[in-house]
């Protein structure tokens, strides 16, 4: 019997779809040009032509949020893409190589987990300078270690199954078995983990941009917007609400999507999660 | 048990050693002359030469690494360029802010998460359960630094109950110091509590399916007593494991949250060191935090193995 996708999946998909749509729309249209500075109209409350108000330079907050979505998604996608490109093959190789490869991935995981993503990004930016590329590099390496561990665990379970033993008995080599039998069977787990890592990358990018180490001005980013809003908390408190809400809704959408996919792929989880 | 503890200590030492290599190697990536990067292009030639000598840049990298690690083992993290003081002293001064902050946030998150997890199980499938799960789902999605800003907005700007930032120091008295740490600790504790509440709920539900619980119920032990005396103690093991794993996120969160509240802790020291291009401080603080995370994770593993022999047997 085909299982129905849980409602968490659909809610998550709707939120992520909205995020994507806003990011894509910002390529074609924003209510105001994002770099348009109007000091006379600074820190306006929401309403009128500026639906969400203006920032301390008089820039339209909605336009900044829309372009911020694009930057946030781009950094997170690149960090997760880099993580997947390095981590998935490494995890597959570790499972195929047996004990030696296992040990390597385990130690690599221990090492990377000793450096929380934000900490490694701080270390890299201290040396190479602040900027989106170094953030992608730091978050990508952290994601690679997580994905290598997850892929290895799932791949080891597939290697123990009978159809893999049968393929080996028929003379298939480890590379062929990995590509034809193991990889398709671990993809579900990898996709679920990827959505979670995407959410983590969005939060970390925002945190680093808040500190001034991530996406650099004049490019808008949600984290930088929060940092700027904090200095005007007394005069324009709502400016601190919108970027945070954008981050929270994106993360909520991605975690719901991941939870929904996981429950769909493995119904045993359903009792333990929200949905 | 002893064999497991020994094996885990060995991997701990190996990981900590690898962490020192990574930190050292990353700083070797500095394009050009690290002394020039730290002092800027307008630095005097003799100042540059003095810094190069202090950093040992005229020696080969392997020798410098061995000296640096030797120093680390003796508690010598080098001398800060900006403060002209030993980094170890700076770290010790900042730890009196960061350590209580981390402990307070751990205490707050655990104190909230365990009752919430119990409530969810006791009201399973009903309003209380849904409320806890809703909190867990939303709490995880909230970045701690945004929570921090919202807390400042509500409790400092609007209500004026807590300071919006800064730290008066412990010499001003425990109460003012704790007041300054309350909002930062809450900001760190809320996402942590969301994760832990969910883990506690799942762990208790898993335990409730075990034979000894059914036996206790069959013998007439009340539902509440079974939950508190039989299910909860067994569920604490996975909670402690997740708590240990979350530590690295707490460290990263503290770096950002300390900056939101301008708390003079390790995170603030690290952040300022980047602005001042004080690579010696960055190197010392990062390696210390990394070794701390590795150490706590190993201790959690060993404590869990001591409390429950099953994972040890499986390993």
How is this fold's topology laid out?
The complex is a heterodimer of chains A (275) and B (315).
Chain A: H1 7-28, H2 61-97, H3 99-114, H4 117-128, H5 132-159, H6 162-169, H7 174-210, H8 222-230, H9 242-265
Chain B: H1 2-28, H2 34-39, H3 45-55, H4 61-73, H5 87-122, H6 127-141, H7 144-158, H8 174-208, H9 211-218, H10 223-260, H11 266-275, H12 279-307, H13 309-314
Low confidence ranges of chain B:
none
| Number of β-strand runs of chain A | 0
- The helix count of chain A comes to 9
Which value, in Å, is the CA radius of gyration of chain B? 24 Å
Per CATH, the superfamily of chain A is MetI-like
SSE pattern of chain B: HHHHHHHHHHHHH
Low-pLDDT runs of 5+ residues of chain A are 271-275
Please identify the top-level CATH class of the largest domain in chain B.
Mainly Alpha
Terminal CA distance of chain B reads: 11 Å
Shape of chain A: elongated
Number of helices of chain B: 13
Strand content of chain A: under 5%
Q: Report the count of strand segments of chain B.
A: 0
Describe the structure.
Chain A: InterPro entries: BP-dependent_transpt_permease, MetI-like, MetI-like_sf. Chain A: It is found in: Cell membrane. Chain A: This is ABC transporter permease. Chain A: The chain crosses the membrane at residues 7-29, 73-96, 108-130, 136-159, 179-203, 240-261. Chain A: It holds the Pfam family BPD_transp_1. Chain B: It is found in: Cell membrane. The complex is a heterodimer of chains A (275) and B (315). Chain A has 275 residues and is mainly α. Chain A has one domain: MetI-like (MetI-like fold, Orthogonal Bundle). Chain A has nine helices and no strands. Chain A has helices at 7-28, 61-97, 99-114, 117-128, 132-159, 162-169, 174-210, 222-230, 242-265. In chain A, helix 4 (117-128) packs across helix 5 (132-159). Chain A is elongated and about 75 Å long. The two termini of chain A are 20 Å apart. Mean pLDDT of chain A is 89; it is low at 271-275. Chain B has 315 residues and is mainly alpha-helical. Chain B has two domains: 20-87, no CATH class; 95-307, MetI-like fold. Chain B contains 13 helices and no strands. Chain B has helices spanning 2-28, 34-39, 45-55, 61-73, 87-122, 127-141, 144-158, 174-208, 211-218, 223-260, 266-275, 279-307, 309-314. Chain B starts with a helix and ends with a helix. Chains A and B meet through helix 3, helix 4, helix 7, helix 8 and helix 9 of A and helix 1, helix 6, helix 7, helix 8 and helix 10 of B.
